[in-house]
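Appendix B, record 7
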Amino acid sequence: MPEMSQPRELFLHELGDILYAENMLVKTLPKLAKEATDPDLRTGFEMHLAQTRKHVENVKQVFEAMGEKATAEKCPGIDGITAEHDEFMKKEKPTPDICDLFLTGAGARAEHYEIAAYTGLVISAKALGETNAARLLEQNLAEEKEALKTLEAAAMRLSKAGAPA
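Structure tokens (predicted):
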């Protein structure tokens, strides 16, 4: 494989990384919604699933606008976050309340990963003069930030509900 030497190549690699991550989350979010016992948390995961499907489409549009085939790059970061969730659920067998609280943290870890990825992609798109790409990626970034705020609020509410009086 030739040496990566151009910012555009790195941008496309990172774009493939987030495409893989978003596709993984399209598969994972229904599982999180099913595991959640708190109705608001469940609804939040379901709503974010619809957004995540749109994120996939936005990323594919960026590839297309750049004249490239949308190609996902294996993303060890999101794989690790997913594996951590699966291991915890299997090993710890949390009660429903603890499960809901754990899910807010697991979701937040994924959101932080996506926020970091999209922040870098937006900066790169702007530097490369890809204004349409930057706009689409900024839309995804804004929704990821909102999803994180929602998870943080849920974590606070669920933590207080389970705290001793």
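Remarks on this record: The chain has five helices and no strands. Helices lie at 7-35, 39-65, 76-92, 96-127, 131-162.
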